[in-house]
Amino acid sequence: MKLSQYAKQQGISYRTAFRWWQAGQIKGYQAPSGTIIVTEGETAVSRPQKVAIYARVWEASHKENLERQAERLIQYCTVRGYQASLVVKEIASGVNESRPKLLSLLKDTSITRIVIEHKDRLTRFGFHYLEVLLETQGRVIEVVNVAENEKEDLIGDLASIVYSLYGRHKGQQLVSQIQACIEHTLKGQDK
């Protein structure tokens, strides 16, 4: 049956049913047309939820922001009724593929939900790949602040590429100058 029919049958909103389907709590598949088909009308056997928080900043000078970010995520989980069993804080670039704390978190299959503040806290590129991979394991990445538009994500990605390439070539001082220039430009667009 269609997900909308399932939602009516269960007396829940379509949004709730969709979230359950995304979290793997409802068995089904998505047809090429985009319609979600619930198979056998049964909810999947749910395993105990183990929630982890992942907070990241790109350099040590932003450590205070790292602590505030982690605190906001803890508060978010508390409001949602999640009991965070692990809080992971890391200082590294979002384009760095060798982040030991993130890699450890991704390898730990007992973690069923990873809560992050923004997509780019997890990774600058390939977020959707990670999301799909974890879904196949019955795991979920929950993004607290989803970008309101693609422009915001694109600017962040562009800045990340520039930081990475110039940082390797000219050193940290040039990266700081570029960052200041981009931030100045973005502030001018906000007006």
Characterization of the model:
The protein is an alpha/beta fold. It has three domains: 3-43, no CATH class; 51-143, Rossmann fold (3-Layer(aba) Sandwich); 150-190. 51% of the residues lie in helices and 19% in strands. The protein has helices at residues 3-10, 14-22, 63-80, 100-107, 119-122, 127-136, 150-170, 172-190; strands at 26-30, 36-43, 51-57, 84-91, 113-116, 140-143. The strands form two sheets. Strands 4-3-5-6 form a four-stranded parallel β-sheet, with helices on both faces. A two-stranded antiparallel ribbon has the order 1-2. β1 and β2 form a beta hairpin. α7 runs antiparallel to α8. The chain is elongated, with a radius of gyration of 19 Å. The model is unreliable at 41-46 (pLDDT under 50).
